[in-house]
Amino acid sequence: MLPGVVYFYEQEEMKMEPRSNQSSKPAGSQRTNQKQKKEKNICPVYKKCGACQLLHMDYAAQLRYKKEQVQTLLKPYGKLEGMIGMDAPEHYRHKVHAVFGRDARGNVISGVYKEGTHIIVPVENCLLENEKADAIIQTIRGMLKSFKIKVYDEDTDYGLLRHVLVRVGYKTGQIMVVLVLRSPILPSKNNFVKALRKEHPEITTVIVNVNDKSTSMVLGEKEQVIYGPRYIEDELCGMKFKISPRSFYQVNPRQTELLYQKAIEYAELSGRETVLDAYCGTGTIGMIAATRAGKVIGVELNKDAVRDAVAGAKQNQVGNIRFYQGDAGAFMTSMADAGEKVDVVLMDPPRTGSSETFLSALVKLKPKKVVYVSCNPETLARDLKYLCGKGYRMRKGVGVDMFPFTKHVEVIIMMRLVEK
Ligand SMILES: C[S@@+](CC[C@H](N)C(=O)[O-])C[C@H]1O[C@@H](n2cnc3c(N)ncnc32)[C@H](O)[C@@H]1O
């Protein structure tokens, strides 16, 4: 058992039970009332927001439920070791996004979009979100009137402030605030920063991001730093990483350390291997692997993330890693065409999973081992089916609960190429 985490192994497997069913079994409507009361006590916007699909279960039941779901999907390929949970599963999101608007009475509100809509559900404190980040968002909301900053209205395309994004460094405590505006000018920007930092001196950088498009994307292309260095730094598994506003960085850093440790354990590196870190983001997994491998090649589509990765390698003095910016599928294909040799592929694609171009190039490259980190077990199962049809076999797998109270889960699989 790992210290400080809830770890469900096979022998602890039980049938999933919603929290309300585990007590003294009150009858029908009484039970429903109790369940609704509990949900409301934990979160007043539980039903409206829709993000916490598993809030009605206690945490142990959530882990069992997630494990069952993943195991069912992966059954044709192999068995899951367990589901690694958190000992304190609240307030784990270190990246918090709030959308700003007005309610029906014209009051300024900030919160989240109701799932699948652009209706804003006001949120004061969220069970999932870092509490400091929530407090900063409330402070900004309170400052808008005195700075004469109007919130943006999608229907009329009028107003300035669309979103606020806050990122909090897990180990460093550094904080980034990104103000997403409809147009580039923030009135009295220096005084705004001064007033904000007076309330929250731990803020280390403030950035204005301009999003002038009618889009569901939060961040636009243009950025202007109005305070600090444009990035925050954080530490994971003993290494420092730079994080820019648009770079991917796992939202739950406490669990990320466990996720990365498992990925490295599954890679079983001896110190001589050539490792490919595909979909590498800011190069986190690759840099940790580099200390145990011959050399590492990282590939990532997002330019800002690659820039952060290169800076991170320099800062951590990792000399045996190179990063390439581009589509991972195209990159793998050119590697396969050039007859390059790769021993281990670490891959961590987005929710959509990998592409057929990537997978067919992987099959040509014939790495002995593939460690697949997935935030969507359905696309993982699809890609596993493809790779198992081409000679790979799942040898190990484990779930990591990166997103307590929600239906989402992270899974790591290790596959080996079976020699014929
Ligand atoms: C789930 S994140 C993983 C990042 C990194 N491994 C980590 O743990 O922080 C997926 C990454 O894939 C990148 N990405 C998405 N599509 C890509 C593609 N076609 N080629 C390369 N990278 C891509 C995204 O920008 C993102 O950084």
Query: What is the CA-based Rg, rounded?
Result: 23 Å
Helicity level = 25-40%
Annotation, overall tally of beta strands: 18
**Helix/strand-derived class?**
alpha/beta
Largest beta-sheet details: 9 strands, mixed
Here the CATH topology of the largest domain equals Rossmann fold
Name the beta content range.
Answer: 25-35%
Could you walk me through the main structural features you see in this protein, from its secondary elements to its overall organization?
The protein has 11 helices and 18 strands. The chain folds into 3 domains: 33 residues, no CATH class; 141 residues, OB fold (Dihydrolipoamide Acetyltransferase, E2P); 166 residues, 3-Layer(aba) Sandwich (Rossmann fold), CATH 3.40.50. Strands 1-2-17-18-16-15-12-13-14 form a 9-stranded mixed sheet, with helices on both faces. Helix content is 30%, strand content 25%. Helix 8 links the parallel strand 13 and strand 14. The chain starts with 6 loop residues before the first strand and ends with a strand. The protein has 420 residues and is an alpha/beta fold. Helix 4 crosses helix 5 and helix 9 packs parallel to helix 10. Bound molecules: S-adenosylmethionine (SAM).
